């Protein structure tokens, strides 16, 4: 298959120094050789990563630390220091190859004011394109009013927040004796979708109408359910008031990537529900195959104008990636 459409991919991970222990919750489930292979890919910014991008026709990868990162650090001060170090490290790596890499900041969300300041520094001084946060912090969700200072900063900077999966803070009873359900197969998606819905139903998008939240994994399954959110919220709102129907925040405030869901049917549903400006190609490197993801999007039964938007234009616009400069450098 020719991989002819230019691509930006935005859920592509690396391992900052000192973050390895945070990821042990899931890396320990892999065999030794798989762990070694994963580590070599997460730590590499050169040979392996660039060859993989070239093979898949990916022009630009927007890099972020792999989950759960500083969201799993119990010490708030240490989390803030690690986030700062990771952001400086990422900015250095991007400066070595600015035509092919951009980045999302890590943020310790333990203290919203500190997260807001680090976001400001990361975007204004380091040139990062927004932030990627791995879900809740030690069970705290960001719909709490104390986080409004963070949302105000994000909106003011006009950059998106990628809300990436993490383990449930407490394993739900529904997964008892079924550990395979708690992680990437199901639980991570439910956890992340629930967090996004908390933001929506708590009115964060009414208070900050220009916010952009990115959900991976084809919107963590939410695009299939928009009609039902409207229909049942109209009956069971329990006194909650929103300025719009729940479905209307999708596409407007919540946009999605195709990371880790290479299904044409799921893509068609997402495009139909959210619009073709709200869906963006991604891989979830190195957990997923860039080649499989590229073949999936290149063979999708959509018009080439839509493919171009999904693969490149939507991300370039949202992240303000200077496409003329990139093109010149790649050529
Ligand atoms: Mn990921």
Tell me about the largest β-sheet.
5 strands, parallel
Helix content: 40-55%
Distance between the termini: 22 Å
Order of helices and strands: EHHHEHEHEHEHHEHHEHEHHH
For the record, the count of structural domains works out to: 1
Q: Helix/strand-derived class?
A: alpha/beta
- Chain-averaged pLDDT: 95
- The CATH superfamily label reads Metal-dependent hydrolases
Strands side by side in the biggest sheet: 4-5-6-7-8
Count of DSSP-assigned helices: 14
In a nutshell, what does this entry contain?
This protein is of the alpha/beta class and 331 residues long. The chain has helices at residues 24-27, 32-43, 47-56, 76-96, 112-124, 148-157, 187-201, 204-207, 217-220, 226-233, 264-274, 290-298, 304-319, 323-330, and strands at 7-14, 58-65, 101-103, 131-133, 161-163, 213-215, 254-257, 279-280.
Task: Explain what you see.
With 331 residues, the protein is α/β, with parallel strands linked by helices. It has one domain (7-319): TIM Barrel, CATH 3.20.20.140. It contains 14 helices and eight strands. It has a five-stranded parallel β-sheet with strand order 4-5-6-7-8. Helix 3 (47-56) packs parallel to helix 12, helix 4 packs parallel to helix 5 (112-124) and helix 5 (112-124) runs parallel beside helix 6. The mean pLDDT is 95. Residues 11, 13, 164, 284 line the site of manganese (II) ion.
């Amino acid at each position: 298959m020719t991989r002819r459409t230019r691509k930006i991919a935005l859920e592509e991970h690396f391992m900052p120094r000192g973050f390895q222990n945070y990821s042990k919750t899931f890396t320990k489930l892999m065999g030794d050789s798989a762990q070694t292979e994963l580590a070599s890919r997460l730590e590499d910014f050169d040979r392996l990563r660039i060859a993989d991008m070239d093979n898949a026709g990916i022009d630009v990868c927007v890099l972020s630390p792999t989950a759960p990162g500083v969201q799993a650090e119990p010490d708030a001060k240490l989390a803030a220091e690690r986030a700062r170090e990771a952001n400086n490290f990422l900015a250095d790596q991007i400066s070595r190859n600015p035509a092919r890499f951009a980045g999302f900041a890590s943020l310790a969300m333990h203290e919203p004011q500190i997260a807001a300041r680090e976001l400001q520094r990361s975007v204004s001084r380091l040139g990062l394109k927004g932030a990627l946060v791995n879900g809740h912090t030690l069970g705290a969700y960001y719909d709490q009013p104390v986080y409004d200072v963070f949302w105000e900063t994000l909106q003011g900077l006009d950059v998106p927040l990628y809300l990436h999966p993490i383990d449930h803070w407490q394993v739900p009873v529904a997964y008892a004796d079924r550990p395979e359900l708690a992680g990437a197969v199901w639980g991570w998606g439910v956890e992340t979708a629930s967090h996004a819905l908390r933001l929506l139903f708590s009115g964060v998008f009414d208070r900050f109408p220009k916010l952009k939240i990115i959900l991976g994994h084809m919107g963590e399954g939410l695009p299939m359910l928009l009609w039902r959110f409207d229909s049942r919220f109209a009956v069971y709102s329990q006194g909650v008031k929103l300025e719009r129907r729940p479905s209307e925040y999708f596409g407007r405030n919540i946009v999605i990537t195709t990371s880790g869901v290479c299904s044409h049917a799921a893509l068609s549903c997402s495009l139909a529900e959210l619009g073709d400006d709200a869906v963006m190609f991604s891989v979830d490197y190195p957990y997923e195959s860039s080649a499989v993801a590229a073949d999936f999007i290149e063979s999708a039964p959509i018009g080439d104008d839509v493919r171009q938007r999904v693969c490149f234009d939507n991300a370039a616009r949202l992240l303000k990636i200077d496409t003329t400069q990139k093109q010149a450098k790649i050529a």
